[in-house]
Amino acid sequence: MNGIESAVFDLDADRHARAQGRMLDIHRDSGQAALHAAGLHEQFRAKVHPGGEALRVLDKHAHVLLEEKGFLAHRGTDGSLHVYAALRAAEDWLSTIDFTDTDAAKAALSNHFTDWASGLRNLIVDADGELIPRLIHALPVGHRWERVPGVTLLGDAAHLMSPFAGEGANLAMIDGADLGQALAAHPGNTEAALSAYEATLFERSEKSARESAQSLETVFNDRAPQPLVDMFASFAA
Prior knowledge:
Elements: H1 31-37, H2 41-47, E1 55-58, E2 64-68, H3 102-110, H4 118-125, H5 156-159, H6 168-185, H7 190-219, H8 226-236
Antiparallel strand pairs: 1-2
Helix pairs in contact: 1-6, 6-7
Protein backbone atom coordinates (compact mmCIF):
# COMPACT_ATOMS: atom_id res chain seq x y z
CA MET A 1 0.00 0.00 0.00
CA ASN A 2 1.39 3.43 -0.99
CA GLY A 3 4.65 1.75 -1.95
CA ILE A 4 5.20 0.36 1.58
CA GLU A 5 6.24 -3.29 1.58
CA SER A 6 4.39 -5.52 4.05
CA ALA A 7 4.26 -9.18 5.01
CA VAL A 8 1.12 -11.01 6.14
CA PHE A 9 1.43 -14.09 8.38
CA ASP A 10 -1.65 -16.28 8.91
CA LEU A 11 -1.78 -19.07 11.50
CA ASP A 12 -4.45 -20.95 9.51
CA ALA A 13 -3.41 -22.89 6.41
CA ASP A 14 -6.49 -21.68 4.49
CA ARG A 15 -10.04 -20.39 5.00
CA HIS A 16 -11.33 -23.93 5.57
CA ALA A 17 -9.02 -24.60 8.53
CA ARG A 18 -11.77 -23.85 11.05
CA ALA A 19 -15.48 -23.13 11.13
CA GLN A 20 -16.23 -19.54 10.18
CA GLY A 21 -19.17 -17.32 11.01
CA ARG A 22 -21.67 -16.29 8.40
CA MET A 23 -23.01 -12.98 7.16
CA LEU A 24 -21.46 -9.74 8.39
CA ASP A 25 -23.02 -6.29 8.64
CA ILE A 26 -20.28 -4.14 7.13
CA HIS A 27 -20.85 -0.66 8.56
CA ARG A 28 -20.59 2.47 6.42
CA ASP A 29 -18.33 4.40 8.82
CA SER A 30 -15.82 1.61 9.48
CA GLY A 31 -15.75 -1.54 7.35
CA GLN A 32 -17.01 0.20 4.22
CA ALA A 33 -14.64 3.11 4.80
CA ALA A 34 -11.77 0.59 4.80
CA LEU A 35 -13.07 -0.96 1.57
CA HIS A 36 -13.16 2.50 -0.04
CA ALA A 37 -9.58 3.13 1.10
CA ALA A 38 -8.48 -0.16 -0.49
CA GLY A 39 -10.40 0.51 -3.70
CA LEU A 40 -12.60 -2.56 -3.11
CA HIS A 41 -15.99 -1.03 -2.42
CA GLU A 42 -17.46 -1.75 -5.86
CA GLN A 43 -16.42 -5.40 -5.61
CA PHE A 44 -18.00 -5.50 -2.15
CA ARG A 45 -21.27 -4.08 -3.45
CA ALA A 46 -21.40 -6.84 -6.05
CA LYS A 47 -21.42 -9.44 -3.25
CA VAL A 48 -23.97 -7.80 -0.94
CA HIS A 49 -26.92 -10.06 -0.03
CA PRO A 50 -30.10 -8.12 -0.99
CA GLY A 51 -32.65 -8.26 1.80
CA GLY A 52 -30.06 -9.61 4.21
CA GLU A 53 -30.93 -6.98 6.82
CA ALA A 54 -34.49 -8.16 7.43
CA LEU A 55 -35.14 -9.03 11.08
CA ARG A 56 -37.77 -10.70 13.22
CA VAL A 57 -37.70 -10.83 17.01
CA LEU A 58 -39.67 -13.71 18.53
CA ASP A 59 -40.33 -14.57 22.15
CA LYS A 60 -39.74 -18.10 23.41
CA HIS A 61 -43.28 -19.07 22.41
CA ALA A 62 -42.46 -18.11 18.80
CA HIS A 63 -44.73 -15.07 18.88
CA VAL A 64 -43.45 -12.36 16.58
CA LEU A 65 -42.78 -9.23 18.64
CA LEU A 66 -41.06 -7.20 15.97
CA GLU A 67 -40.67 -7.50 12.23
CA GLU A 68 -38.60 -4.78 10.62
CA LYS A 69 -36.33 -3.99 7.72
CA GLY A 70 -32.92 -2.46 8.26
CA PHE A 71 -31.20 -4.90 10.58
CA LEU A 72 -29.28 -8.20 10.36
CA ALA A 73 -30.48 -11.74 9.65
CA HIS A 74 -28.42 -14.90 9.17
CA ARG A 75 -29.94 -16.48 6.10
CA GLY A 76 -27.32 -17.26 3.50
CA THR A 77 -27.60 -16.53 -0.19
CA ASP A 78 -27.88 -20.30 -0.72
CA GLY A 79 -31.04 -20.41 1.42
CA SER A 80 -29.30 -22.00 4.44
CA LEU A 81 -30.07 -20.78 7.95
CA HIS A 82 -27.16 -20.19 10.32
CA VAL A 83 -28.40 -20.34 13.92
CA TYR A 84 -26.74 -19.23 17.15
CA ALA A 85 -28.16 -20.47 20.46
CA ALA A 86 -26.79 -18.31 23.26
CA LEU A 87 -27.13 -18.39 27.03
CA ARG A 88 -25.42 -17.33 30.22
CA ALA A 89 -23.60 -20.23 31.86
CA ALA A 90 -20.57 -20.96 34.00
CA GLU A 91 -17.34 -20.50 32.08
CA ASP A 92 -16.52 -24.22 32.31
CA TRP A 93 -20.01 -25.37 31.23
CA LEU A 94 -18.96 -26.04 27.64
CA SER A 95 -16.25 -28.41 28.86
CA THR A 96 -18.96 -30.68 30.32
CA ILE A 97 -20.39 -31.38 26.85
CA ASP A 98 -18.85 -33.67 24.24
CA PHE A 99 -19.38 -31.70 21.05
CA THR A 100 -17.90 -34.54 19.00
CA ASP A 101 -21.13 -36.41 19.85
CA THR A 102 -23.59 -34.17 18.00
CA ASP A 103 -26.74 -35.89 19.30
CA ALA A 104 -25.58 -35.66 22.91
CA ALA A 105 -24.57 -32.02 22.42
CA LYS A 106 -27.97 -31.20 20.94
CA ALA A 107 -29.71 -32.85 23.89
CA ALA A 108 -27.59 -30.96 26.43
CA LEU A 109 -28.20 -27.63 24.71
CA SER A 110 -31.93 -28.11 24.08
CA ASN A 111 -32.42 -28.93 27.79
CA HIS A 112 -31.88 -25.23 28.44
CA PHE A 113 -34.88 -24.37 26.25
CA THR A 114 -37.48 -26.90 27.45
CA ASP A 115 -40.18 -24.24 27.92
CA TRP A 116 -39.64 -22.73 24.46
CA ALA A 117 -41.85 -23.36 21.43
CA SER A 118 -41.07 -26.65 19.71
CA GLY A 119 -40.46 -24.90 16.41
CA LEU A 120 -37.64 -22.91 17.99
CA ARG A 121 -36.19 -25.91 19.86
CA ASN A 122 -36.16 -27.79 16.57
CA LEU A 123 -33.64 -25.29 15.25
CA ILE A 124 -31.25 -27.11 17.58
CA VAL A 125 -32.62 -30.64 17.35
CA ASP A 126 -32.94 -30.69 13.55
CA ALA A 127 -29.74 -28.81 12.74
CA ASP A 128 -27.93 -30.64 9.94
CA GLY A 129 -24.48 -29.30 10.74
CA GLU A 130 -22.10 -29.79 13.64
CA LEU A 131 -22.54 -27.76 16.80
CA ILE A 132 -19.64 -25.39 17.36
CA PRO A 133 -19.12 -24.11 20.92
CA ARG A 134 -17.98 -20.51 21.23
CA LEU A 135 -17.24 -18.64 24.44
CA ILE A 136 -17.73 -14.88 24.41
CA HIS A 137 -14.59 -13.03 25.42
CA ALA A 138 -14.07 -9.31 25.92
CA LEU A 139 -11.32 -6.96 27.04
CA PRO A 140 -12.28 -4.25 29.56
CA VAL A 141 -13.98 -1.21 28.08
CA GLY A 142 -11.34 1.46 27.55
CA HIS A 143 -8.47 -1.03 27.36
CA ARG A 144 -5.26 0.57 26.11
CA TRP A 145 -1.50 0.29 26.51
CA GLU A 146 1.63 2.40 26.69
CA ARG A 147 3.55 2.81 23.44
CA VAL A 148 5.98 -0.02 22.71
CA PRO A 149 8.49 1.04 20.02
CA GLY A 150 8.14 -0.77 16.72
CA VAL A 151 4.97 -2.72 17.49
CA THR A 152 1.21 -2.13 17.71
CA LEU A 153 -2.03 -4.11 17.68
CA LEU A 154 -5.21 -4.04 15.64
CA GLY A 155 -8.48 -5.93 15.39
CA ASP A 156 -9.48 -8.30 18.18
CA ALA A 157 -5.94 -8.28 19.56
CA ALA A 158 -6.42 -4.59 20.37
CA HIS A 159 -10.06 -4.43 21.42
CA LEU A 160 -11.70 -7.84 21.80
CA MET A 161 -15.39 -7.41 22.59
CA SER A 162 -18.64 -9.38 22.43
CA PRO A 163 -20.34 -9.61 19.02
CA PHE A 164 -23.39 -7.64 20.14
CA ALA A 165 -22.36 -4.38 18.53
CA GLY A 166 -21.49 -6.04 15.24
CA GLU A 167 -18.15 -4.24 15.21
CA GLY A 168 -15.47 -6.96 15.30
CA ALA A 169 -14.76 -7.31 11.57
CA ASN A 170 -15.60 -3.66 10.92
CA LEU A 171 -13.06 -2.38 13.44
CA ALA A 172 -10.38 -4.78 12.20
CA MET A 173 -10.88 -3.47 8.66
CA ILE A 174 -10.79 0.21 9.57
CA ASP A 175 -7.85 -0.41 11.94
CA GLY A 176 -5.89 -1.84 9.02
CA ALA A 177 -6.81 1.07 6.76
CA ASP A 178 -5.91 3.65 9.41
CA LEU A 179 -2.60 1.96 10.17
CA GLY A 180 -1.64 1.90 6.51
CA GLN A 181 -2.61 5.53 6.02
CA ALA A 182 -0.71 6.60 9.14
CA LEU A 183 2.45 4.87 7.93
CA ALA A 184 2.06 6.51 4.52
CA ALA A 185 1.54 9.93 6.13
CA HIS A 186 4.73 9.63 8.24
CA PRO A 187 7.40 8.27 5.87
CA GLY A 188 10.55 7.34 7.74
CA ASN A 189 8.97 7.95 11.16
CA THR A 190 7.28 4.75 12.25
CA GLU A 191 6.86 5.87 15.86
CA ALA A 192 4.95 9.00 14.85
CA ALA A 193 2.76 6.86 12.59
CA LEU A 194 2.00 4.32 15.32
CA SER A 195 1.30 7.01 17.91
CA ALA A 196 -1.16 8.72 15.57
CA TYR A 197 -2.80 5.40 14.70
CA GLU A 198 -3.21 4.34 18.34
CA ALA A 199 -4.74 7.69 19.34
CA THR A 200 -7.54 7.08 16.84
CA LEU A 201 -7.78 3.39 17.69
CA PHE A 202 -8.24 3.91 21.43
CA GLU A 203 -11.02 6.49 21.12
CA ARG A 204 -12.98 4.55 18.50
CA SER A 205 -12.66 1.12 20.12
CA GLU A 206 -13.68 2.39 23.57
CA LYS A 207 -16.94 3.72 22.14
CA SER A 208 -17.68 0.45 20.33
CA ALA A 209 -16.70 -1.70 23.32
CA ARG A 210 -19.10 0.24 25.54
CA GLU A 211 -21.92 -0.25 23.01
CA SER A 212 -21.08 -3.94 22.80
CA ALA A 213 -21.18 -4.39 26.57
CA GLN A 214 -24.49 -2.54 26.82
CA SER A 215 -26.01 -4.59 23.99
CA LEU A 216 -24.93 -7.82 25.65
CA GLU A 217 -26.88 -6.82 28.76
CA THR A 218 -29.86 -5.94 26.56
CA VAL A 219 -29.87 -9.38 24.95
CA PHE A 220 -29.16 -11.42 28.11
CA ASN A 221 -31.78 -9.73 30.22
CA ASP A 222 -34.37 -11.17 32.62
CA ARG A 223 -37.06 -9.40 30.57
CA ALA A 224 -35.68 -10.60 27.21
CA PRO A 225 -36.53 -10.17 24.46
CA GLN A 226 -38.51 -7.04 25.38
CA PRO A 227 -35.46 -4.76 25.90
CA LEU A 228 -34.23 -5.79 22.44
CA VAL A 229 -37.63 -4.98 20.92
CA ASP A 230 -37.64 -1.63 22.72
CA MET A 231 -34.18 -0.84 21.37
CA PHE A 232 -35.13 -1.60 17.75
CA ALA A 233 -38.39 0.32 18.14
CA SER A 234 -36.44 3.36 19.30
CA PHE A 235 -34.45 3.30 16.05
CA ALA A 236 -37.65 3.60 14.04
CA ALA A 237 -39.13 6.34 16.24
